[in-house]
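Follow-up to my post from last week.
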Amino acid sequence: MEQFEQLLTCAICLDRYRNPKLLPCQHSFCMEPCLEGLVDYVRRQVKCPECRAEHRIPYQGVQGFPNNVTLQRFLELHIEITGELPDPTSGQVMERCNVCSEKAYCSFCYHCDKKICEECKGAHMEILKREISRINNQVRRGIHRLQDSLSLVEKNTQNIQTNCLSVSEEIEEIYRRLNKALKDRTEYLRGEIDRYLGTELRTLTSLKENLEQEIANIVSNCDLADKHMNENVDIWDDCELMDTKEIFLKTIEFIRNFEYENTDYSRRIRLVLAHDPNQLVLHVAGFGDLNISNTNNPFSQGTSTGLLQPPGPGLMRSKSDHRLAFRNQDQGYGERNYGEQDNEQVLSGRKFGERQQKSDKYGSGYGRGGEYGGDDYDHEGTRSARSKYSSRFRRRNTMAEDDSDNESRNVRFHEQQPKTNNERERPLDTEDVTRGPLSGITRLADSPRVMKKLQENPTGKKKEKEAPPAPPKQPQVVPKRQPPPATRQVSEDDEIAKIKKQNKGATTSTEPVTETTRPTVEERHPVQQRKTPAPEAQSSAEDSEESSVSAHQHQQRQNVPPKTVPQPTTRRSSESAHKKSARSASSDSSSSAESSSSSAVRSTGAPFTTEEVKQKYLSRSEAPTETRSRTASTGANKEPVAQLTKPFQSRFLNKPATVPPPPQSKKDEEESETSSEEETETEEESDEPSSKKSDEKMAKTDIGPLLARSAHARDSSSSDHLRKKEESPINRSNYSTSEEPSTRYGSKRRTTITSEEEPPRYGYTSRFLNKSKSSAAIAQDDDDYTSRYTTPTNDEGSKYPATGRSRYMALKDRRQRLARSRSSQQFGDGEDETEDAGVTTPISPTTSNPTAYLASRGYGTSASAHDLARSRSTHALKSRDNSPERSSASAIEKDGAALSSWARYLKNKYGNRSGAKDKDSTASGGNSQASASSSSAARRLSLGLPLRSSTDLASSDDDGQKNMQGSPTTPTAATAAAADIAAAAAGTSPRSKYLQKCQQLFQIGSRGSEAGCFTWPRGVAVGPDNSIIVADSSNHRVQVFDSRGRFLKEFGQYGSGEGEFDCLAGVAVNRIGQYIIADRYNHRIQVFDPSGRFLRSFGSQGTADGRFNYPWGLATDALGFIYVCDKENHRIQVFQSDGTFVGKFGSMGSKEGQLEHPHYIAVSNTNRVIVSDSNNHRIQVFDVNGKVLTSFGTEGSEEGEFKFPRGVAVDDQGYICVADSGNNRIQIFHSDGTFLRALGCWGSQKGEFKGLEGVAMTPDGHILVCDRENHRIQVF
Amino acid sequence: MAVLPRRIIKETQRLMQEPVPGISAVPDDSNARYFHVIVTGPEDSPFEGGLFKLELFLPEDYPMSAPKVRFITKIYHPNIDRLGRICLDILKDKWSPALQIRTVLLSIQALLSAPNPDDPLANDVAELWKVNEIEAIRNAKEWTRRYAMDN
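User reply:
Got it. Predicted complex:
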């Protein structure tokens, strides 16, 4: 036999003959590659390896040699005898491998869609396997997200409960209080009336008596006179007559003069209501609303609530990864494409577009519900986002489940498959496979194919990977693709081995191990049974899977308690496994029942009859869907939640204004210093205020009510500071925030204000109000800070949910304590409050803080404002300005003061510019001592910072300041301008505007070097005329467009001469329209006039002052100072507009105030310098001195986190826009750094980004984004 | 490195399973195309009793081209030079893909039994072999004893 075999062996390849060719020498060799390899192409000869005979090669090549038919017969015979398998390659023809271009038997490779040789294919499969395991690792790493969200969901459930509880308690409390207040007041009024009636009656009675007596007397006199005067009886002597006459004269005089003072006694009592009774009733009737804060916009939520916040975008991303995976398998479903970023072959851009819209939609709601706790936001945000998911899948699932026979699903697949570019078979994705209800991820273990493989190949070294690209891999694991018929039968050994393997895998999950044993035992027989129709088993498996998965998903989804679906006991193992390592589904679970893949699960299912199982399955599957749908619906129309949350609002009754996080959180030490200083000042001044009464009146008379009030607020706050120094900074920030225009509430309020003015009788009510208000303030107080202050809402929200009850209590206490820390109240509500304060305070007995009271009063009135003016900020000024009563003289004076302080600041900062002024101001300032002690910077802060933070007024103030700076000589004009601006600005709510942003308005450019095209645009800026200036970096030019994106002009070209660029980066436009360009590779800054003509350049490469190392972004401020991100020197340099070095700050590092590769910079109109500290993944905000005011962001892709942030921009309201380059999205923050929203994702569609660079914000609220790799500017 | 051709695998397997008497060829751990070969000196030859180490390398296009073989152990033989290079036709122009490692090694063993001084590589040895065969054989034995034993 051996010889026989040898005869059938080709001498060259030592293999069995394949296609033997007979040479003329009678020796035979395989045609390919043996004979082929022997060919001497030059001589067109073949030399027989055996006998060395040389043969001419036929015309057609070696193919032309005759086949050795005999040998071939022998071969066939041999096969027949031995029964061995035919050579799989027999009959195939060798082809060139498309990868290594060697000749070989090629087969199709799914990895590269080419026919390639085994060798290359093996390599490819290796790659795939590696990739899968890598992805698998990622999946594993990411699993905790799901687990986190599970725990979050649980937590949220709890929170919701506590939340609702506390809210209802709150309602109770409010009800009690309202009731009491109403009762007290009623009683009081009644008592008053009674008292009044009593006294009046008494007086009237006595008067009546007197009058009666008088009349009687007089009448008797008259009678007497009539009687005796006419009778000529001389009983009267002259003296008596005289006397009598006098008496009568007196009488007549009395009568004449007597006038019943009607007014005195006809005073009618009248019930005067401080509020329009109708409105009052309305207010009471609607004293609270349940507002579900709408969280829905996934990006919009603030940072403060991190605790409860489900891992937002990150989770989504991870989900998207899944999706991606899933998509691979099942592209038919790809309604949305979620690309996986870190996968080298990006399959598709993620499209978050939908979501954005959604968020936008909710965004408006957000503004509305702003009062609410951030927590709620979160809730809803995630909920909605999730619900979307779930809804989507639900749809699918339901569909799938609806057509209970899986075939329909199958059909669907078929229909959709054509869409996919390569219609490769998806061996793992069959109808039997269970899918995650949320992600649609197939469970590999369930795939019959996989099961088969696993069984066939018990030793299979690899656990299944969850990752989907698995299909190609599978074949490799199992060497033979065509399973021999016998494979179905699984030997026990195999099973055992498999079990062993599974157990091994199970080690990760502790519990499952024990569990697994059972399934394994059971496993055996189902396996054998499998030959018989398997569906039952499968269905049961599915169902278990479904339940476990659904639980899993629930958590993702949100509030649905994870275990809504009853789990059969048998499923425990899977469940536990699932719990433990979430969906290690395939791998771990394989160990556990779950993936025991299918087999284990199946086994459990086996006991049921098919029908039973099926029914069970169906019913069960329904359950999850229902829940799912529920959640979805809640997400969509947040009704239920809304009701729940509303109470929150009620609690903050007056506080709504606080909602919008106001721009600034300045809680520097400086600030606090200044504030304390101010306090002292205020005190002094507050004493001064002359006639309280008049003040009061004035306040009431409503002079520019807002302004007056804001002044109030401020004052009172400052006085508060006295009381509580620590708190003072907080309060301050509050103030500033108080006037947020954006809240719907606020605006409403304003309108109603006028009607609200009332006589000052309100002691009681006002007190009450104050209290409630103060609570808001309190909330802020106890918190710790930054974010807090500025964004009361957020913190409130966050706090609330966290410790629902206790918090509330704390608040209550606080409230009592602070009852009249009016400051907060005032702000808290902006106008309403202030009004109340103004009106109420005088009477309210509760106000314990007289100074505050006085102060508030004094300041509130324009008259007293005078006093303040000096020390007070422009804010005060402003209010005065607007107030009709203001005297021009005082205004001027004030301006002067304000200005001078600015000047001082400037001087300090940049040299002595307006020293005289400064001095004057100091002198004039009543509080020279304080000012003396305080640094000028502090001064500035006291002036500017608080102002800045407030939105409407504040911003306008800032404008005012700017103006003043700009034209120091004409202060009055400046202030006037400021006032105008303020007026103009009032009413806009940038916040909601940003929240609504979701869709690209338009975009400019595409790749190219023509006009209007870009190659790697980097910096973008907005000119004073709203033109758009783009640094077309790799075209080495600057392009200018009008505000609608029409090309206007370009200038610059490659080079290092004047007006030439080398990969310019940042652009900026100063107030007079000059273009300032960071000429990156030339390490210099160039300045061009508004027409694009070169003016000057400064800087060169180096590390000294005024030198650069790859300057990147730059910005200018109102005074024309140029701030340059000196990227490789890790610092910011400041220059005068003529290029004179002024200062620098920052050094390499990651500590506060240090920078690593600062890329872009923006300067707000309040002179906050915002720097994208790119490699530290954060944004730092400096003052112009380089002192860190705040910094926010860490590395990550959640809301408020960054990956290599680049462009930054700030609008005139202080909102900060950050190009989160690594995450390919734009994030918008409040001025204090709290997150407002995010938009965009990776991709090249509208609203998607690839490599973000600069951003800019136009005065009209558009956001310009430089989408580098897409070579375009997008405008939102 | 590309995957090993089936033929090499087969040959290697066969070499392991059915070793040729007096010859051992073991592939290197790191390179399956490189073999460590030991050939025993044939009986009745001056090289009897010696163990001669050789190295054998299968080039990329093996079997279409001949393996490269070289003596590592010094040997006194007219067809093997001082560097161990072998003058053997089948390693040169007479190579045929039908030949295998084992046949090559057998040929080399045969060459040891039948030196061919008419086609010399080491001229001095060949000269002596032709002029004074006894002397030459003595030398060969001496070398064998000196270099090919006891190691």
